[in-house]
Structure formats: structure tokens, C-alpha cells
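User: quick one, sequence for these C-alpha cells?
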């Protein structure tokens, strides 16, 4: 469970400046900065960061172009390994549906295939992470840009354990999106062309970043949904200790070390 460490301590800081000073001193002595213990809305309402966790969550980022099959494979990962699925696109669409203060702006950006300001998206993800009882997350469609990535690191103060990249040819992505039939406002050829351009310009650098960090798993996204899952996705999760209870699902699955990409 990913719970706030801060909540039981926070009254101390607001009720007494001397006790807050001594708390700060204690934290300094233990090597922790004040801001690492408390949500900074007590310090600066615009810049709230997540407090450290009792136990670090297992975070998977799921990347790939529009229509590459991220959401489809996430459903299968959830079924098999029980991670909590957070789709950045779904969180943004929920803002539109709920007509929140950002809803209209988000709608216009999505219609145009553009990227919503990172602060907005990261805060939606932050809310989900902090209110969840899960400790294993699949964050789908995020980070889309280097700005997204940096904002996540700054606000959430966590790094992904795994980054999946569903690598799919453009014509296939176009075919899939135009046949998706889920009533999405961006599933049309005009927006799709813009989304592909933005993917190539802004998401590729993020993919390269995680490749250089040795965290990237590139998955060939051509094939049936089940084959992609069984042959490529399942072995990745099976290779992690955190998912060993689920290994009975396919005990023969093993991961080839060459699957993990690194530029070094
Ligand atoms: N391996 C596959 N082969 C054929 N069709 C697929 C495959 N995987 C997914 N699809 C279909 O392609 C469409 C797009 O898939 P999905 O919604 O999972 O993509 P996505 O990467 O989440 O796209 P987006 O970024 O636009 O949300 C869906 O209609 C889905 O059923
Ligand atoms: N990190 C993100 C994710 C999504 N968006 C916007 O939502 C659109 C749909 O996203 P999907 O993941 O569901 O394809 C996307 O084209 C962006 O307009 C975003 O801004 N930032
Ligand atoms: Mg999707």
C-alpha cells in the first residue's frame, strides 16, 4: 500500500513553529529534507509533491504510438498480474466528461492531437496513485514528452521500474485507430496524422532516454493480441520478483536478456 507518511505528522508543523523547527532538525539529522516528508501545499499550494512511500511502488510506463495496442495489452497485464491500470488519456477524458475547470481546454488539445500541460496530467496521476491501495501500477500513455517525464520525477519523486514500448508500423496504427469504433474524438485521419507527428517528435526522445537507462523493453506490436502478450509481455513481468506469485500462469516463460535494451 502506498500511503502518506506525512499525515500523522502534519499537525505538528502547523501548530507550533518551534516543534516544526525541531522536526526539521530531526529530519535534517536523519538525512531527510522537510519537503520530502510533507506535501508542499503547506509550503506552496502550486507545488505539491508526493511524500515518500512506506514501500516504493512498482511502476511500469507503457509507451507506443497511437493505436499500437497499449490499452489492449494493459488489460491483459491487469488480468494476469493484477497491476492497477492508469491510462493518462482516460484520466484526461474523464476531466472532459466531468466538465471540470480544465475540461474544455483538454478537449481542444485532444481534438487537435496536442499534449496537455504536464502539470495537469501529472496531478491527475498523482491523485490516483495516492488514493490507491495498490503498490503496482501500469501508467499507460505517459510520459509522452520529456516535459511529462521531468514533471513526473519532480512531483511524484519516483522512477519507473519498467518501460514497455509497443513498436508498431505507422500504417498499422492508422488502420487500428480508424477501425477502433469507440467514439473517440481523436480517432479520425486528420487528428491521427498530427498524433503521429507529435509521437515521433516528442515521444521518441523519452523512449531513447529509457533505452539509455537500460529500462526499456521494445515489443514488436505486430501479431495477435494473445501472441504479443504470451510471447513478449508475459516473460517481462515473469522475470520480476514482485510478480512471482503470478508465475504459475505460464511457468515456461523466460525472458531473454537481450530483450532489455540499453545503448551501453
Ligand atoms: N495486436 C493487435 N492486432 C490487431 N488489432 C489490435 C491489436 N491490439 C490492439 N488492437 C486494436 O487496435 C485498436 C487500438 O488499440 P488500443 O486502444 O489498445 O491502442 P492504444 O495504443 O491504447 O492507442 P491510443 O494511444 O490511441 O489510446 C483497438 O481497436 C484494438 O482492439
Ligand atoms: N501523457 C498524455 C497522454 C495523453 N494526452 C492527450 O490525450 C490524447 C489521447 O491519449 P491516449 O493515450 O488515450 O491515446 C493524446 O493524443 C493527447 O492529446 C496527453 O496530452 N498527455
Ligand atoms: Mg489507449
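Assistant:
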Amino acid at each position: 500500500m502506498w500511503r502518506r507518511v506525512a499525515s500523522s505528522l502534519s499537525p505538528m508543523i502547523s501548530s507550533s513553529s518551534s516543534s516544526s523547527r525541531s522536526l526539521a532538525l530531526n529530519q535534517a539529522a536523519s538525512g531527510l529534507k522537510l519537503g520530502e516528508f510533507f506535501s508542499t501545499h503547506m509550503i506552496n499550494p502550486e507545488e505539491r509533491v508526493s511524500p515518500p512511500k512506506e514501500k516504493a511502488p512498482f511502476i511500469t510506463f507503457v509507451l507506443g504510438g497511437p493505436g499500437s495496442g497499449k490499452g489492449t495489452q494493459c488489460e491483459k497485464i491487469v488480468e494476469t498480474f493484477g497491476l492497477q491500470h492508469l491510462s493518462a488519456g482516460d484520466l484526461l477524458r474523464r476531466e472532459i466528461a466531468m466538465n471540470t475547470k480544465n475540461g474544455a481546454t483538454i478537449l481542444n488539445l485532444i481534438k487537435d492531437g496536442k499534449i496537455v500541460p504536464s502539470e495537469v496530467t501529472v496531478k491527475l496521476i498523482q491523485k490516483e496513485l495516492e488514493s490507491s491501495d495498490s503498490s503496482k501500477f501500469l501508467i499507460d500513455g505517459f510520459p509522452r514528452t520529456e516535459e511529462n517525464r521531468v514533471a513526473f520525477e519532480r512531483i511524484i519523486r519516483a522512477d519507473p521500474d519498467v518501460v514497455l514500448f509497443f513498436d508498431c508500423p505507422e500504417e498499422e496504427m492508422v488502420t487500428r485507430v480508424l477501425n477502433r469504433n469507440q467514439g473517440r474524438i481523436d480517432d479520425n485521419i486528420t487528428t491521427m496524422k498530427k498524433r503521429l507527428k507529435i509521437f515521433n517528435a516528442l515521444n521518441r526522445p523519452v523512449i531513447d532516454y529509457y533505452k539509455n537507462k537500460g529500462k526499456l523493453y521494445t515489443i514488436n506490436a505486430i501479431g495477435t493480441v494473445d501472441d504479443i502478450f504470451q510471447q513478449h509481455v508475459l516473460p517481462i513481468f515473469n522475470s520480476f520478483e514482485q510478480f512471482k506469485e503470478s508465475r504459475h500462469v505460464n511457468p515456461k516463460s523466460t525472458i531473454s536478456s537481450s530483450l532489455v535494451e540499453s545503448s551501453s
